[in-house]
Amino acid sequence: MAEYSPPIQIEARGLSKYYGSFVAIEDISFSIPRGQIVAFLGPNGAGKSTTLKILSGFLGASKGSAAIAGLDVCSERLEASRRLGYLPENGPLYDNMVPIELLRFFGEMRGVQGNLLKQRIEAVTEQCALQDVLEKPIGKLSRGYRQRVGLAQALLHDPDVLIMDEPTAGLDPNQIRDFRTNIKRLGESKTILLSTHILQEVSAVAERVLLIHNGRLVFDGSPGDLQKDAPLDETFYKLTDFGRTSSTNQAGGGVA
Fold it and tell me: How far is the C-alpha of 212 from the C-alpha of 163, rounded, in Å?
């Protein structure tokens, strides 16, 4: 009997992005099957956010293609977006709204209405522990609660795939712990790709690591493989320090 292979849910095929002579990312390729939690690791400016924006359909690639749940994010963008929840580094929040209003707004924008919208708001409110702040202005919420609201809107339409850009940036240790616990719980039913430059994030939540440096993929494997021959911080330094003075990107460093 043939071994079962989960369907590919996130795929990058030779992704490159250029700004004139500046190389933001170059020939990025990987595929992520259903049910994996993958950390997209790299130093600031390595090209993580650029890659995620292309995968999410918010930015066009100069070369290559990307797919979500087998749907091309360029030619089948609307259908791909229905399968995707995206939490950018600075989430799409409106400070003058309260969370319940924002969730209704995003739900209606996605075509979720009536009893289904009510059920989904109740579900994400519980998933993200928002019960105590549903009627408080978003502008008055802590960074941790704002991240929870952002995650709730990304989950509102119950997507198969979740992409998050630096989801724990700026959170305090307790908030980080809670957020990581939520990510692992979500990983039981969803495919997750999250970018980070925080090494502890890798061993805390991920079963696979993609390491990017100077816009190029330099490692793809398990957290155990990444620290097999040396501690994680030493391996990270070795993989991201080479060629620093003669970067393959043009002068001025990388982009997010």
Answer: 16
